């Protein structure tokens, strides 16, 4: 014990002589393009010690993530607990023993020495190295021994790998910025970075961010935004994703709607349907399908924002809200969600119907224009549905009204059926002036007719509707003729039966 104390005292003196400014990892501020630097929170970490290069350091990664990393007995890591109301962060050593996980708080005494039970050290690194080298039990009661650290995963990004640029927008999470991400192999990528700026970091926020990261890292699909990683070593927490060039679908449509063909719009909807179909195949309900949560690159769409997603099982394919006071996107919710607080794949289908409405109106207003959220809530429960917009082809209007909006979830289509139908419409569309082989001819036609492309498209849509109405009328006439024939046949059979009956009576 005397030898341990002497070693500890010497280490403490050398540790205090280090410069804290050189060891702090930094990150550019999202609110500036001049790379203002921010410090990690000093109250939670040792003031003279940096963990950035330690294999066992995992920052503010929550229990839900670290439990999956500690697979073998003796594996360990060090992390910061999520702050709870009235309490700050604490350093915790998490260890796997044969039957479970143990989580030990690393305390600092009045002499600024670090300990878990009886052994005290000048630095946290010395404490960890002591238990690894001596194989002493962390505590007698636990019997936990440190054998090997769990290194950072590929998706655990250092703040020093991220440089933030201009802000793209703000949301409930904080801000979204353009940034660069220097990968471990030295490759630099342009990325989009969600930054939890402006809100005090607490347990709920950390868990929400890390849950979204946990969800995103499981998925790889052309219509799902790619996930690169999450930086949780210090504040602010950063969620690093693929940069999709043209931004959110709602903003994109507001700017470009008049230049997009029906084929373009149908293809965007098919892309979104493909992404949602993929999530459903992975037993995931998105719960927030909306134009604002889709991103656009070269007129192709990817699903993003996984903050509300929930995993379900093959047996229980639904999720029920526990906290009824949380803010919900009322205008996109299915009636059963509004009534019973229950989500299923089919509630995503209903929300997709709202997305179709958004796309074909160019997102000029929120769904259910003229109604308050409370009025929407009441009316949708009573069976009210929005009419398809005038700019929507009848084939897509049919998907929206007949296959997304039925009150009974079982009467709605699966996303696979919707995706296939939309792809057929997009591929076969005769409205795509933008991609016609002879663009000059199309432009000449527009000039000769003295109409702008939007009016020409509207005229095409009107002609299509009239043609379909004629077909419906013809079909209706044929149906009426068939009914008349059936009635005549029925009358004829009745007369024949009566005649037969009379003959038998005479006989």
TrEMBL record:
Top EC class of this enzyme: transferase
Record Pfam families: PK_Tyr_Ser-Thr (PF07714), SH2 (PF00017)
EC number of this enzyme: 2.7.10.2
Phylogenetic classification of the source organism: Eukaryota, Metazoa, Ecdysozoa, Nematoda, Chromadorea
Positions of the Protein kinase domain: 162-431
SMART domains according to UniProt: SH2, TyrKc
Keywords: ATP-binding, Kinase, Nucleotide-binding, SH2 domain, Transferase, Tyrosine-protein kinase
Keyword Methyltransferase listed: no
Catalytic reaction annotation: L-tyrosyl-[protein] + ATP = O-phospho-L-tyrosyl-[protein] + ADP + H(+)
Top-level lineage group: Eukaryota
Region called Disordered, residue ranges: 1-48, 450-507
A GO molecular-function descriptor: ATP binding
Biased composition (Polar residues): 26-39
Family: Belongs to the protein kinase superfamily. Tyr protein kinase family.
UniProt-recorded name of the protein: Tyrosine-protein kinase
Basic and acidic residues compositional bias, start-end: 1-16
Sequence ranges assigned to domain SH2 in this UniProt record: 56-150
Binding site for ATP: 194
InterPro entries assigned to the protein according to its UniProt record, in alphabetical order: Fes/Fps/Fer_SH2, Kinase-like_dom_sf, Non-receptor_tyrosine_kinases, Prot_kinase_dom, Protein_kinase_ATP_BS, Ser-Thr/Tyr_kinase_cat_dom, SH2, SH2_dom_sf
